[in-house]
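Summary of Year 1 activities. Much of the first year was spent building the evaluation harness for sequence design. The harness presents a backbone, in tokenized form, and records the residue chosen at every position. We chose the following record to illustrate the format because it has been used consistently in internal testing since the harness was completed.
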């Protein structure tokens, strides 16, 4: 075995009063180094991003179990980069085992108490199950389920976690993005937002759209994606992947602190899926491979790879019509990157996040009053209400544009970027781990989230005869 410095993210915790922790579970106190991370079969760069910073509670020794090959090699390179960077370097020590029996080796040795998962999604739900059965906590990248069969297994996993007294949770970084945070804050102020509109299928009351790119930069370096990433049977289709974040945000923003019962509160209305075309040259650039592997040839037409990485979902949640959609392009326009659009429609105002060219591809939040509202009176109420928000987020301000729309001005200190959100999520996880439980709504809402995405895939596929 070879030692590497690794950045390990550690905290995993989950448990919810309705999924209470049993007396069998090890108690976490917040002591230095008590959280010991196991990184299992890392295949996605998110496995390294959770290790971009250090945490006092997390041991510097991180055990990695994986098959030999590209995925683990790339993971270790990223960790080494964190350790060797000039500013705030980490000091992780990765203790690596590679071999075909990596899973059995991990389970027999049990060198840690938290398993971090970010990789091939076809294997992920089974990895979760076996780790939980061994009495290990699991912190997983999304998605934890990519089809209905996985969803059924995931439900079993939460039962196992309850029985074993361990925690299972997924990484929802977008809850830490500042425009989303402020959109949520303002939606909870009736004087500003009014009441949540119900909307219609033709005019949903909540809309979230995400545009991503296959070729991009991570930690200022071109991202190389593994060949299996382009196979939807392994990565999952777009409708069950990035949409996980969007569905989560609908729940987290519109129904803060509320339990979502997918059997009662969710009604699926429509879903669609479509492909992105990738030329062989583009595939070479982003994967580093010279040719399509055999398992991708089923998706190749006239030497062009067609990947079902796009989709949209229309559904009702507690009577509110919501629509989420994800689009994957090959690469971003000059000066651009991944983008997010979001609108929440209240009886007094719409809260809108835009991230297009006009915003220099930086997410910005706007407050747009509904027609017929007394704008002079609303301005007084809005400014008064903002004092509560500013108290929590000093430096945030309002600017009224010439068209009457309010722009929420956000200081640069809050714009830390997607990669840094993993560290923020980890801090929350460490706190939950010490408490031994999550808020009561987290587990049922995770189930609701994956019910929506996997049901949408079934609905979209049923349209293709």
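For this record, the design step produced the sequence shown next.
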């Amino acid at each position: 075995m070879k030692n590497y410095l690794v950045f390990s993210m550690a905290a995993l915790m989950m448990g919810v009063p309705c999924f209470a922790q049993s007396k069998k579970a090890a108690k976490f106190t917040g002591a230095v180094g008590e959280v010991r991370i196991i990184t299992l079969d890392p295949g996605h760069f998110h496995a390294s991003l959770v290790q971009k910073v250090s945490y006092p509670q997390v041991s510097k020794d991180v055990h990695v179990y994986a098959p030999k090959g590209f995925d683990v090699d790339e993971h270790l390179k990223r960790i080494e980069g964190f350790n060797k960077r000039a500013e705030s370097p980490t000091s992780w020590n990765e203790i690596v085992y590679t071999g075909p029996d990596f899973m059995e080796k991990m389970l027999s040795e049990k060198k840690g108490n938290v398993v971090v998962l970010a990789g091939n999604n076809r294997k992920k739900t089974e990895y979760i199950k076996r780790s939980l059965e061994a009495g290990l906590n699991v912190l997983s990248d999304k998605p934890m389920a990519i089809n209905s069969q996985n969803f059924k297994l995931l439900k079993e996993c939460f039962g196992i976690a309850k029985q074993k007294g361990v925690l299972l949770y997924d990484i929802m970084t977008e809850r830490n993005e500042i425009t989303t945070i402020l959109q949520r804050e303002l939606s909870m102020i009736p004087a500003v937002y009014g009441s949540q509109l119900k909307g219609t299928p033709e005019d949903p009351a909540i809309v979230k759209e995400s545009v991503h790119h296959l070729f991009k930069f991570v930690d200022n370096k071109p991202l190389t994606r593994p060949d299996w990433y382009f196979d939807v049977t392994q990565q999952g289709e777009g409708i069950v992947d990035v949409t996980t974040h969007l569905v989560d945000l609908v729940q987290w923003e519109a129904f803060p602190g509320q339990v979502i019962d997918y059997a009662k509160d969710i009604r699926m209305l429509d879903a669609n899926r479509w492909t992105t075309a990738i030329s062989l040259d583009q595939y070479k650039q982003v994967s580093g491979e010279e040719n399509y592997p055999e398992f991708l040839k089923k998706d190749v037409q006239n030497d062009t790879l067609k990947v079902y990485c796009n989709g949209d979902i229309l559904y009702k949640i507690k009577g509110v019509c919501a629509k989420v959609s994800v689009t994957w392009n090959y690469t971003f326009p000059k000066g651009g990157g991944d983008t997010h659009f979001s609108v929440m429609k209240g009886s007094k105002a719409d809260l809108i996040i835009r991230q297009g060219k006009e915003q220099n591809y930086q997410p910005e939040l706007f407050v747009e009053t509904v027609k017929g509202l007394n704008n002079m009176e609303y301005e007084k109420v809005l400014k008064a209400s903002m004092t509560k928000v500013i108290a929590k987020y000093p430096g945030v301000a309002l600017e009224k544009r010439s068209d009457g729309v309010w722009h929420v001005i956000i200081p640069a200190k809050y714009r830390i970027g997607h990669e840094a959100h993993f560290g923020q999520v980890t801090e929350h996880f460490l706190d939950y781990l010490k408490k031994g439980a999550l808020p009561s709504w987290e587990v049922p809402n995770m189930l609701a989230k994956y019910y929506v995405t996997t049901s949408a895939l079934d609905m979209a596929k049923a349209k293709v005869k």
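The longest strand covers residues 266-279. Quantitative recovery figures across the full test set are reported in Table 2.
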